[in-house]
Amino acid sequence: MHYGSGDHLYELVDGWADLPGGDSFVDAGRVCIDDNDDVLILNRSDRPVMKFDADGAFRSSWGEGYFSDRPHGMGIGPEGNVYCTDDGNHTVRKFAPDGELLMTLGTEHEPSETGHRHSWDILERVASIERSAGPFNGPTGVTVLDSGEIFVADGYGNARVHAFDPEGELRHSWGDPGAEPGRFRLPHSIQHDDANRLWVTDRENSRIQIFDTDGRFIEEWTDLISPTDVAIDDGTVYVSELCKRVSVFTFDGELLARWGNEAHPDDPLFVAPHTIAVDSAGDLYVGETSYAYADTDRGVRTVQKFERV
Q1: In angstroms, rounded to a whole number, what is the distance separating the alpha carbons of residues 308 and 81?
Q2: Domain spans of the chain?
Q3: Tens-place pLDDT, residues 232-271
Q4: Which CATH code is given to the segment(s) 2-308?
Q5: Global pTM?
């Protein structure tokens, strides 16, 4: 069965990842592709970072002892270092490609004060954020420019984006709770394009906001429902949406393809899409947080590969 339309047709590679015996991803916070087209998956199992090749063969894992049960976002820096956010312990950590800890931003288990109150109802949780504050309160996403500058979306208990220099010194922050341009209701992931524009999935405002590196608002995309992540490649923008679908756009925002559960009434294709990545062949990887949202462990289907036809 093919998914998508036009020049963007994909075929599901069923059971793509060869998980080590008995393991599960539980939930996938973020999927990243490195320069070798290996697939790194930040997940909520006993192996927090797993690496697979493009065919799904397991290569390695690391990260034990550094994460709470809520690892959330990940980005790969220009030297191959791996940056991970943990919205459970309020830190962002920088690792070498082999998992050696190089730097920690934030103080573990000491969130900044925003008025945030934890709730399993996400709308109540976001509404409880009375004001923005410094790093961090539930950091959700991270991206690193070729210059080494680090940008962190601080979303579950805050409403800000923070910019750090390569050594981890805070340079500036922007954002407040709300729906106007430059404000956020759960900045969920952050990515950058070749022009160093920053794309932030403003999940509970059902939009993507685009900024320059100084935090100046450029534009917003609104043909979305609860976007969770964005991947950018060769002038094409791929978006995962919590409403159980994937959307593909041109760089100018024209919709090229969109698919979800329409053809799967009895066995859903998606439960809670949370992250999306694209490799050099144009193949897509969609990771889910189905356990957190529906108490369903999808096993190997927590991360699905869609091979471009």
Answers
A1: 28
A2: 2-308
A3: 998 999 999 999 999 999 999 999 999 999 888 888 999 9
A4: 2.120.10.30
A5: 0.97
